Amino acid sequence: TVQPLHFVPTYAKRTKIYARSVRGLYARLRWAIVALTQSVFFGLPWLNWNDRPAVLFDLDAPRFYVFGLVLQPQDLIFLAGLLVIAAQALFFFTSLAGRLWCGYSCPQTVYSELYQWIERRTEGDRHARIRLDQQPWSVAKLARKSSKHALWILLALVSGFTLVGYFVPIR
């Protein structure tokens, strides 16, 4: 006898994950590192050094300004060496304490924390978000969801413009 064919769906239905907020020493440490990394990221393009941006990768000139150091195309070997040293330091650090990088200072972790913080501030804690998603659409629900997404877009725009500030003088 021939068995009938059974098709297995390739994709499962999407199930939303509701992250819980975490408190304690390590969560405070993570937020301290988030504050440090973001203040460096957002602050460096605004910092001036000898009447020019302190850190500027001017691709038009082409010159790279890193505080008092000015690198030109013929200095590319020094920049390559600096990048090799930075890459080896990253490999060495992650081989010794990879979870410290991944759990505290990796950009994906940092921005996940920021976006989840916005979500908690606009929609509430885990249980409030679950209840909100189960409710039918209303003006209040639309306002909460819209404000969350608007703040997410604002954070993305500010981060993007700051990144551009490393290549074009931000002022």
State the share of residues found in helices, binned by percent. 55-70%
In angstroms, what is the radius of gyration?
A: 23 Å
The main sheet comes to: 3 strands, antiparallel
Q: Give me the secondary-structure category.
A: mainly alpha
- What percentage of amino acids are in beta strands? 5-15%
Total DSSP E strands: 3
Runs in which pLDDT lies below 50 for 5 or more consecutive residues are: none
Q: Report mean pLDDT, rounded to a whole number.
A: 89
Number of helices: 5
What is the H/E order?
HEEEHHHH
The shape is extended
Spatial strand arrangement across the major sheet: 1-2-3
Task: Give the N-to-C terminal Cα separation.
Answer: 78 Å
Structure in words:
The chain has helices at residues 25-43, 76-105, 107-123, 126-134, 139-164, and strands at 55-58, 63-66, 69-71. It has a three-stranded antiparallel β-sheet with strand order 1-2-3, with helices on one face. By secondary structure, the protein is mainly α. Helix 1 (25-43) crosses helix 3 and helix 2 crosses helix 3. A hairpin with a 4-residue loop joins strand 1 and strand 2. It is built from five helices and three strands, in the order H-E-E-E-H-H-H-H. The protein is extended. The mean pLDDT is 89. It is 59% helix and 6% strand. The protein starts with 24 loop residues before the first helix and ends in a 7-residue tail after the last helix.
